[in-house]
Design a protein that fits this description.
Blueprint (H helix, E strand, L loop, with lengths): L10 E3 L12 E8 L2 E13 L2 E6 L4 E6 L9 E8 L7 E9 L2 E6 L3 E7 L24 H6 L1 E3 L4 E2 L7 E2 L3 E4 L5 E2 L5 E7 L6 E7 L5 E7 L11 E2 L6 E2 L3 H7 L5 E7 L15 H7 E2 L1 H17 L7
Antiparallel strand pairs: 1-8, 2-3, 2-9, 3-4, 3-15, 4-5, 5-6, 6-7, 7-8, 8-9, 10-13, 11-12, 13-20, 14-19, 15-16, 15-18, 16-17, 17-20, 20-21
The structure holds zinc ion.
């Protein structure tokens, strides 16, 4: 998977004085290119040494530096930087306009950013049984899942403009337009609506209180929003149709599936050169992880009726 870059114009909406807030300043961030939403995610706005930081759970952080420093975010000129560990950042000059609870950051590039204040970092539902991302709860057969794998975890890849990278997930073959579903209950952290690299990130809460994240890439016609709670029955989107597959030049029409322990790398580990050990700090091998869980589930199911997972 490649990391994509945006030209950015932002629109931001900030209702409160940032420094005085005892509650968290949470925003739904919409990054648009030529008027079309390209990325959507939740972020917390923090005032930090005369600048503002939009801290996201599963996306690059955004830094806003006002031309005239001040404690309260106000309409005016800002420099906006996308910050991301180990990767280059891009900086834009933008004009912010604040209306009610929304902030618009408009730049001279085709990209704008809109911040709408709302609590989109809500509760994540407890996870349940694990499923194949193609099941919609109908087909979670471990063997069928494993047979779909056409790209392995940690494979070394070249092309796509970087120096080569290790594959942070697995590639699962699927038919044109095949619908994709969450592998467990969870909450949507981010969505990218780009034509060939669109995807969804979901947070899962495990019974022991820990969290895991699943990421579904190369999907289109995405039907969920950041902050939304989902179940394995919630349609996320679908794989490429024939025309998009042709444009993509991939060997197989496939879903790129990642399972992560954290998002400290903002989800871009697979975008630069690193060792398998580095990759495994943030990512699990979905073939092993989900393969084992689906096999266990199948064994349970075969024990007979009355077993729920
Ligand atoms: Zn992949």
């Amino acid at each position: 998977m490649q990391t994509a870059f945006w030209g950015i114009a932002f629109s931001l909406l900030l209702p409160f004085s940032v420094h005085a807030a005892s509650t968290r300043n949470l925003y739904l961030v919409l990054i648009t290119r030529m008027g079309t939403v390209e990325n959507q995610f939740c972020a917390e706005l923090i005032s930090d040494n005369g600048r503002y930081l939009l801290k996201s759970e599963a996306h690059k952080d955004i830094i806003l530096i006002p031309e005239t420093p001040g404690a309260i975010l106000s309409s005016g000129k800002y420099s906006v930087t996308l910050e991301h560990q180990n990767l280059k950042t891009s900086t834009l000059q933008v004009t912010a306009t604040i209306h009610g609870d929304s902030i618009k950051l408009l730049s001279k590039t085709p990209v704008d950013i809109l911040l709408v204040q709302q609590n989109c970092l809500g509760e994540t539902p407890m996870s349940n049984a694990w499923n194949s991302p193609f099941s919609g709860n109908n087909d979670s057969n471990a063997k069928a899942f494993l047979r779909r794998i056409v790209g392995k975890f940690a494979d070394f890849r070249t092309g796509g403009g970087d120096d080569g990278h290790r594959h942070a997930g697995i590639d699962l073959r699927g038919g044109f337009g095949k619908e994709v579903y969450p592998i467990n209950d969870g909450r949507v952290l981010a969505a990218s609506f780009k034509d060939l690299s669109g995807g969804v990130v979901i947070e899962h809460l495990l019974p022991d209180g820990s969290r895991l994240y699943s990421k579904y890439v190369h999907i289109q016609d995405i039907s969920v929003k950041a902050g939304e709670q989902v179940t394995p029955h919630t349609r996320l989107g679908r794989l490429f149709d024939k025309a998009s597959f042709k444009k993509s030049r991939y060997t197989h029409n496939h879903l790129h599936l990642e399972i992560r322990k954290d998002y400290e790398d903002k989800g871009t580990d697979s975008s630069y050169r690193e060792t398998r050990k580095d990759l495994e700090r943030h990512c699990l091998d979905p073939e092993k992880f989900l393969g084992a869980l689906l096999t266990k589930k199948l064994a349970h199911t075969e024990q007979g009726p009355g077993v729920s997972n």
